[in-house]
């Protein structure tokens, strides 16, 4: 019978008995502890470093000694001798630190697995759910060393490599893992074209990148540790790109650009219109976004390389070795891109005509996610790499909403969550693990500060907060960039302040439940302006533009329409799902992050619920894109989830118009609002609405 | 309990009881008889026509009546009313002939399934094995009729279509068939781009072409019956293309062209050399073959359309209906191409550098078969269609040999077969279902009539047969295009006559076992010519060139080298396989079809065996390409078979040179030759060879 030894793994505390002569890495796997490796146990990658701790460990009743494992091998010694800085920084000495793939067990040992060597890396996403995302990229790298061909074994280059990949995969993943047989592997045709040269130039020692465990998409000479991927959120206004390390999940650069399609139309409807009216309209829109993506890719690579230069000094062209200067990254090392965007952006990106998105019955060309070779779209990542586009749900509920679902995971909840992404158009998802329903509604640009008399973006000089005293009717306001209230010179009002202002005008009784200005109030701030009644938030002398900044009757009306649309959409979804209230409300996008949630509820922008259950989660679409980039399993998950989402078209709901009219009131007239009722002075509530205040 | 009826199906004689109200097509399937249908039982395609026979059938003890099935439906009546010519030609009347998808069973019936309606069509290949090939193309067509989208069901175009395809596949294949679920189907990206327009233009009634049961590669408006495919054999000298109907297997056009690469080198070695010496060499070779393929495709389509015009008159643009004029075919309707060729042709086609094929250790870039989108290679079939390239086996045993194996199926035999494809290079495959070994050997151009003093192609004026009287040493010869011997004016000697002449020179004792002319013979035909000794086959006055046509010592030497190489290769394979003799010898290519098998054996070109076991099978590579085009299962089969073929490199065999020298003799000096010994006069045999004659 083979001798057995006691092994303890820290920090997990896993322990057990393993056979004499087994490598530490294999032993750890047997005890359920995954240790990284990408060099197929060749003592090259150094990913599998562990520490052999010395001493008598009473708790486990063992005595651990360095002599209980095999001596440091020549390969290990060579590996560590090239990394003096690592040893110094960490305070490790060779013999204490070992490559677990090389180090064999000959006696009892206690082994410490440092953070960086542990398998199953995760990134933490801070959201309503605060969950961890496991890094499982679609692309994995393997070092493959082959014996060169000779007359006795003149097997073809690809088959030689494929057999090596099978062996390497098995070593990296462990004997039990189900890896494809060599003849089940494929190689991308364009990648194949360079294969023979790379194999010979590298002396039959290459790193391959395998996509989805089935297709080789890159073959690089020698040992290469990292690959990169890009997650992109194509907004109607802004295109944001996150360049990530596919192994660690780290975001190396975030870049954004204006969407260049804006010159063809400000919102999606006008761009669809443009594509219908101009024979080359689609082509122009498509080319514009492709060239922006290529520009962002270039910028991101430049940013990363500049950071590297700052940290390590200029690239000397040496091969990357751990903790010495990593080599500059090249755009061809970006092996995958995940894209999200609303359905119109999705279609234009894919060069699919968006016409039917804008015409009844509002039908996309495709829902399901797609993988398209980068070269087919002219996107300048590695030409064998894929562009993965997340699924669309409906004409106005696009791949960005799919990404939001992936980021927030309503489909894994027992509670019913209401997710709202507000822009010119609002998309809403409601439900839980059993059922998800969705709809969308135009909200107009008012909520984003556009088409409002003194509306502006949340830039310096913008009023971002407003309060109004309900007895004096005097306002307080806060300007972007100022720490204190009523400081600085105002230039305009941004989205969050517009909501504040409307809510405060209502709460102070300056506008009534129906949104009309009361004309008999004792304040000169309420006055008949050029375009009807208005309330002056900042007098001319307090501004940098030398003019009074008022909130007009027209502005209030715009907000009323927007919030009525959003409220009615929410209520319709709730009703269709047989629910009274959502358990949580999740606001995605920049809008959600800046508004005062209580005031939004006060004017009926979001359904009445406990304020602590309202979350703002920022750019959930971008986060979802990143999740899909870093975890390939999430792609199937979101495809399956979106297939089951039920779509409701509001115009087909007979009650919609009726509900909409009731919802234009403040807060609204259709149901109780217990969570905000206490904020509303009795005098200002509409007699009809009073029924709902109990 | 449901009522049951007795059903008899002819000509198969299948019978059984089926449930009341079942359609004839479903009933037939239950009884194991497959009836065609591609319109998803919409009474549109007419593929499922059957005849209801009337009368009392004593053998089955039933009375069959037309009244025992449902009356002719309006759809059926409409279908047949559009085809008066079909009914007249066949002598059928409506009511007797029915669409089996529409016709329901209400009583006992005897049904005749005409040939054209039977599923599982087959083509017969006449080979050594004379087997039938089932038509199972990689591409199947389905008619899909969808309800248009509306506000209640605004599902995307692709998903709407995919659901329709699932339904249609299930109907066509039968309820028990395992068809993919709609969300498992994919659509080629370029095909997707035209989807929305086609669906709307067609009023949601389209025919889709599905590749490998998984990817939609074409969507055509309305009902379309046929698709086309091309099988291509790229020879070093000639490129041959067969345009086939993918449904019926019929070859609609065969076209061939000279391989344009010939200007860069006559044989593969010189083309490899060219690609090494010129930086743009590969690009030129690659572009040349691609443009020839595109030319052949155009020609083939033209040929088919001209045939249609001759048969039916000019195309009036009407939709194809059965037995009325089919619509002209378009090159975009060619949905797949299967390509074979030697390893150099294979590499150049794929734009892979052939360098390593020509340099030791002679390694191809890839063995396995590939599917590459036509657009990636610039081949002008449907841009979403695939180019399927058969696997290579070794540097000098290419995809043409794989095709030969597929055509001849040595891997399914109990006997040991030796397959030989002779050209400038000869490829040999030996074995049976348990083991296959292969090798190749250069044979030089002599066997094809090149580099022989008066050698020429088998064109008019070429001597194709030679006999020599062993007492008078006078020859008889036959010229291509003449029915009688010694008729016509000779211009040169083609390959088959060169073998004849050498064999006859030996048999008549004019050259000895070692190939040397005997100088003391009493005939003026043997003489010292300009380039040494020679034998005059035709005197100047018998020729059209006004010069004597001799067979020279140099010519005999060339044949000796060629046949020694081929013989040694055969013997080496046999020895390595532990075999004495092959059970069958199969000669592929034009060469095998024209030579006199007995004479080939007499000079030791092919191993000694019973002559009735030597088969010439013509263009087996082209046939194999066609088989792979028409039966998708054959592609996996040949991939699996070629993975297991063992490769032998002759130069690494220590005995090769020794064997080779012995084999230059006539017939050879290495082993017995019982099957030809009786042909050889005692006096002409080398004393050393005599040992083998018993």
What does this protein look like?
2 copies of one chain form a homodimer. Chain A has 694 residues and is α/β, with parallel strands linked by helices. The first copy, chain A, has 5 domains: 114 residues, Ubiquitin-like (UB roll) (Roll); 84 residues, Roll (Ubiquitin-like (UB roll)), CATH 3.10.20; 162 residues, Domain of unknown function (DUF4445) (Nucleotidyltransferase, domain 5, 2-Layer Sandwich), CATH 3.30.420; 171 residues, Nucleotidyltransferase, domain 5; 110 residues, no CATH class. Chain A is built from 20 helices and 31 strands. In chain A, strands 16-15-14-17-19-18 form a 6-stranded mixed sheet, sandwiched between helices. In chain A, strand 15 and strand 16 form a beta hairpin. In chain A, helix 14 crosses helix 19. Chain A is elongated. About 1% of the residues of chain A have low confidence. Chains A and B meet through helix 4, helix 5 and helix 6 of A and helix 4, helix 5 and helix 6 of B.
Kindly give the count of domains of chain A: 5
End-to-end separation of chain A: 80 Å
Mean of residue pLDDT of chain A? 89
Low-confidence stretches of chain A: 319-323
State the total count of DSSP E strands of chain A: 31
Helix content of chain A: 25-40%
**Most strands sheet of chain A:** 6 strands, mixed
Global geometry of chain A: elongated
Backbone structural class of chain A = alpha/beta
* Main interface by residue count: A-B, 46 and 46 residues
- Percentage of β-strand residues of chain A: 15-25%
Q: Which strands sit side by side, in order, in the main sheet of chain A? A: 16-15-14-17-19-18
Q: Give the radius of gyration of chain A.
A: 30 Å
- Kindly identify the CATH topology of the largest domain in chain A: Nucleotidyltransferase, domain 5
Return the CATH architecture of the largest domain in chain A. 2-Layer Sandwich
Give the C-level CATH assignment of the largest domain in chain A: Alpha Beta
The oligomerization state is: homodimer
Give the helix tally of chain A: 20
